[in-house]
Amino acid sequence: MVVAKVTPAADVHTSQESPGSSRPRVLMMIGRGGGGHKASARAIEAALRKQEEAQALEIEFIDTGYLIEAICTGRKMRSSGHDFDELYNSLMRRNLFTLAGALGHLSGILLAVRSGRMRRGLVKYWASKQPAVVISCVPLFNAVFRDSLLAACPDAVLLTCVTDFTSTTAHTWVNKWAGSSSRRHYVVAGSALLQRQAAQMGYPQAHVVATRGMVIHPSFHDESKETGPIHGVVEQDGASDGARTALVFFGGCAPMRVLGIVRNLRATLPAVRVVVVCGKNAALQAKLEARGDLTVKSFIPAECVRHYMRTAALVLGKPGPGVVCLCPRRALAARRSSPSASVRCRKRSLFCAGSKRRRSASS
After folding, report:
1. What is the 3-class SS of 247-269, one letter each residue?
2. Statement: residue 195 has pLDDT above 70
3. Model-level pTM?
4. In order of start, what are the domains of the chain with their CATH numbers?
5. Three-state secondary structure readout of 287-340
6. N or C, where is the chain less crowded by C-beta within 10 Å?
7. Cβ neighbours around 179 below 10 Å, total
């Protein structure tokens, strides 16, 4: 069986495997800023579980923020507490999007200043873990991951799974190809722009895994209908009462501005049932639940997101990689199953994809 565990505090799975396990080890490097990094890692793990040849793997989730902090401070790696990721989430919850974006630039400066120490610390870390594969679902650190992994475990593979549409200065995913130092490094690029950026950085075509969109959970490819409650999350929320549904979904950290969006939605479409996914924003969840006329959820598993997208006539959300890629996937499934659902899902996917164009035009 695939063994999965967490080091530390990434709330996924635990394992009874001993440190000296002979299973090939896959390390998933994740972050807590937003929800996309961890969601992508969960999707990869779920896909691996479906592969017979991967059943002997030991999969371990590593919190990159706490690991880098421990290396830079010389302290023991902690499992909770405030750091850059939590600061980013806090700024996003408070609608301070520009400041949240600036954290990426600040992190890049800190990386440049402490890169030597990070590399030495990571060499020791990889040597202690002896991974066969490291899958990075975080930006900024992939160059130092690559160099330190090659020094510690020359036969190990680094796979960078990009969870954005592009590599930018604030969120650098694709670093310059480093010749023989990059020979065990591969990049999963889910957009034509990313693929061009990788080519411009010198990556051979064989080292770029070109996909059509972001990595999404395997459950979104499942065309079967739900036959019962999902994790007890959607049992009693009126999902089957025939009412048209609008889903408000801003990813892992919904901002407080959702309050105004919901208020306007209710005024415009009073007969529509509204489902709001708040993610890691307890204050927003409490205010929405106090209204009494909404279905409000916090952080829900992928199967539940799939359920709500499948039953919704409209999705309101940010034009992030996850939302934009998930909506068309559900639209495709709905078109296969129902002509009326096809119309609803076309509207849904066009709204999500079009919102990015409108934002660009107004800026």
Report:
1. EEECCCECCCCHHHHHHHHHHHC
2. yes
3. 0.77
4. 3-215 (3.40.50), 219-362 (3.40.50)
5. HHHHHCCCEEECCCCHHHHHHHHHHCCEEECCCCHHHHHHHHHHHHHHHHHCHH
6. C
7. 8
